[in-house]
Amino acid sequence: MRQDLYMRLQRYSAWCGFILMAGFIVAYAVGNLLTPMDPTMTPDEVVTFLKDNQTGILTCVAIMVLTVPFEYPFVVVTSLQLKRIEGGWGLLSMTQVLTGVVAPIGFFFPLAILSAAAYRPEVHSADVLSAMTDTFNLMLVGNACIFVLQVWSIGYGAFIDRRDKPVFPRWFGWLNLVLGVFLIPGAFVFITKTGPFAWNGLLANVIPTLVYFVWKIATPIVLLRAIKHEEAELAEGKGRSEAQLATS
């Protein structure tokens, strides 16, 4: 592949992060899901919520179906930049890409369950619909801790990079470390219905969501900077090779 095309594809992949961010916000706003449902809602209250927001929820899922595939090039370009730090495919870059591949499933599968509940709420009992919305919320928030290793691998890569112009700045390493820590409380949503560890709680949902949004904005910016530096390094290496050929 031509070098200019390769770098262009990397830049497109980094921009996918912004597309994902915009898509998530629009989708969840349309579905009235930016504010999590209350775990203590009665089955009848759940049915009312689904009926009142039926069109919005189904539209939300449609938007997510169109948006989520952009996660794949975004994950791959992140690992390609980690690969530069490791000098080839290594533990960090492979961990990041493998855990990142699961990320779209972590978003779409819970939403697919919620859409099934909202699709025909009039034909299901309140208990069934309540169980389906429980599954949606438990999967969406509880499974987030799976991605701790993904962000920590990126953060560790930033810490061990000793080049003059590091691929990832050190502050970005700390951001990934902090995000990983804040994803851990999601594991406790399965054993509590109220308080900071509930699926709508401060520690399990609110803070991790805010930090994730910061990360989702910062990562494409950092990637675009890293790609620019890689392009300059390749151009410098090519220039050196041409100079050596000219003098030989």
Secondary-structure map with pairings?
Layout: H1 3-30, H2 43-52, H3 54-67, H4 71-86, H5 91-119, H6 126-142, H7 148-160, H8 170-183, H9 202-247
Helix pairs in contact: 1-3, 1-4, 1-9, 2-6, 3-5, 4-5, 4-7, 4-9, 5-6, 5-7, 7-8, 8-9
Overview features:
elongated; mainly alpha; single chain
Structure commentary:
- By secondary structure, the protein is mainly alpha-helical.
- The chain has helices at residues 3-30, 43-52, 54-67, 71-86, 91-119, 126-142, 148-160, 170-183, 202-247.
- Helix 1 (3-30) runs antiparallel to helix 9 and helix 4 packs parallel to helix 7 (148-160).
- The chain is elongated, with a radius of gyration of 21 Å.
Describe the structure concisely.
By secondary structure, this protein is mostly helical. The chain has helices spanning 3-30, 43-52, 54-67, 71-86, 91-119, 126-142, 148-160, 170-183, 202-247. Helix 1 packs across helix 4 (71-86) and helix 3 (54-67) runs antiparallel to helix 5.
Query: What is the string of SSEs from the N terminus onward?
Result: HHHHHHHHH
Q: Shape from CA axes?
A: elongated
Got a strand count? 0
Count of separate DSSP helical elements: 9
- The low-pLDDT segments are none
Strand content is under 5%
Fraction of residues in H or I helices: over 70%
Distance between the termini: 28 Å
What summary fits the major beta sheet? none
